């Protein structure tokens, strides 16, 4: 009964609630740290010309993909030397190194950006994907936690969005796809299958989805996901040629592996994985992998252990989202949007043991802190993730062993 007696319920209000304290403080810290970057980025967007902090963001890859696809040069995306030459020709010599790392069917979503100039395209991309993300968060809330705290959810979304504005990555889009798929996987398997299929633009984010669907015997969602994935691959091959897939599988993926092992810099501090944490601390890639793989195995064991004890759907989904970042060596802070939403809804709707409540609350606001932890030479994000995962599992185990009388 200890886990129940020590539980903190949101039904009595949020005043003094540990979740509000954790998420609120971390979100405020994110605002203080990110505000100067946001101001500089906004000034650059509103001013004349194209300053470096506007054109060097990750969105440049998406806009260039749209431009090159419209010009029929999409094949050049998949070869780094050729693609980087296009970047320098467009943005100037000595442009910061960018590489293309996505499969060809992502171009089916990006080609309209080629119809716009750079700044309008950036605004449209962020606006549309942010709207999708917010909509998905509230659809997900309606399904799994309709009585949850909206305040905690908004705080988590706000902190994550601060980071996303000036990184202009695809996190809003992939977060929305994951949340839509998880919200609809039982009630609307066709729509869920389409969402999961589109999420294969970043396949590492869907690492545990097939496992959960198999455990739940959700054959319809599995079937529709597979069918839509095959359809997207076939459509992209028809539109952009089978050679685009050949180049992606042989050149692009090989270069992505070399980025992980040969490159260094700020991108490592943006990764909440054990591999990146070890490299941030100065260890070689080989040593980082030696640590990552046992950590991944441990994470997979914790996920399976959790699903053995968890009967609550929202807890099982949190385990999926959190476990993905523990297991995968390749993920970024901007990929953590759906996890932030799920964690905020969990602590805002369920009575949890105090330790589980605090750890899951920290995870709800972790995304905008990942890079600054790395910069401070404290890359502890993967440790926080696996502790939070284990804490929630221990809570579920104790509840199952000590049922309410």
Describe this structure in words.
The protein has one domain (2-401). The model is unreliable at 1-12 (pLDDT under 50). The longest helix has 29 residues, at 18-46. It has 21 helices and no strands. The protein is mainly alpha-helical and 405 residues long. Helix content is 70%, strand content 0%.
Relevant terms:
405 residues; 21 helices
Q: Could you provide a short overview of the structure?
A:
This protein is mainly α and 405 residues long. Helix content is 70%, strand content 0%.
Strand content: under 5%
Tally of discrete structural domains:
1
Topology as H/E string? Answer: HHHHHHHHHHHHHHHHHHHHH
* Gross morphology: globular
C-alpha end-to-end distance: 9 Å
Which value, in Å, is the CA radius of gyration?
21 Å
Q: Percentage of helical residues? A: over 70%
- Quick one: biggest sheet? none
The tally of beta strands, per DSSP, is 0
**What's the overall average pLDDT, rounded?**
92
List unreliable stretches of 5+ residues. Answer: 1-12
Number of helices: 21
Query: Which structural class do you get from the secondary structure elements?
Result: mainly alpha
List the helices and strands and how they pair.
Blueprint lengths: L1 H4 L12 H29 L5 H4 L3 H12 L9 H12 L15 H4 L7 H27 L5 H18 L3 H14 L4 H10 L10 H7 L3 H22 L1 H21 L3 H4 L4 H7 L4 H25 L3 H15 L9 H11 L6 H11 L5 H6 L5 H21 L4
């Amino acid at each position: 009964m200890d886990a129940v007696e020590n539980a903190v319920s949101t039904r009595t209000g949020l005043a003094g609630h540990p979740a509000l304290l954790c998420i609120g403080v971390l979100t405020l810290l994110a605002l203080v740290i990110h505000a100067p970057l946001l101001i500089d980025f906004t000034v650059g967007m509103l001013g004349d010309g194209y300053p470096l902090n506007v054109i060097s963001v990750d969105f440049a890859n998406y806009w260039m993909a749209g431009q090159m696809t419209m010009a029929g040069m999409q094949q050049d995306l998949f070869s780094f030397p050729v693609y980087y030459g296009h970047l320098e020709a467009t943005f100037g010599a000595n442009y910061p190194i960018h590489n293309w790392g996505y499969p060809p069917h992502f171009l089916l979503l990006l080609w309209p950006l080629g119809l716009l100039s750079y700044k309008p395209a950036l605004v449209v991309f962020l606006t549309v994907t942010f709207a999708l993300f917010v909509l998905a968060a509230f659809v997900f809330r309606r399904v799994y936690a309709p009585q949850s705290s909206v305040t905690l959810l908004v705080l988590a979304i706000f902190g994550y969005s601060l980071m996303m504005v000036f990184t202009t990555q695809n996190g809003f889009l992939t977060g929305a796809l994951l949340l839509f798929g998880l919200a609809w996987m039982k009630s609307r398997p066709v729509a869920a299958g389409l969402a999961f299929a589109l999420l294969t633009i970043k396949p590492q984010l869907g690492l545990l989805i097939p496992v959960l669907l198999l455990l739940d015997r959700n054959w319809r969602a599995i079937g529709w996901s597979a069918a839509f994935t095959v359809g997207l691959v076939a459509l992209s091959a028809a539109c952009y040629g089978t050679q685009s897939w050949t180049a992606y599988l042989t050149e692009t993926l090989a270069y992505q592996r070399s980025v992980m092992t040969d490159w260094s810099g700020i991108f490592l501090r943006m990764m909440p994985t054990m591999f990146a944490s070890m490299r941030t601390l100065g260890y070689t890639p080989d040593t980082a992998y030696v640590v990552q793989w046992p950590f991944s195995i441990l994470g997979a064991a914790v996920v399976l252990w959790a699903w053995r004890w968890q009967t609550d759907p929202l807890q099982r989904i949190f385990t999926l989202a959190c476990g993905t970042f523990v297991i995968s060596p390749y993920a970024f802070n901007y990929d953590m949007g759906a996890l932030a939403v799920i964690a905020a809804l969990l602590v805002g709707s369920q009575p949890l043991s105090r330790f589980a409540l605090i750890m899951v609350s920290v995870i709800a606001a972790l995304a905008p802190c990942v890079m600054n932890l790395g910069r401070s030479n404290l890359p502890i994000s993967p440790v926080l993730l696996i502790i939070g995962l284990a804490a929630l599992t221990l809570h579920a185990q104790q509840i199952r062993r000590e049922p309410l009388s």
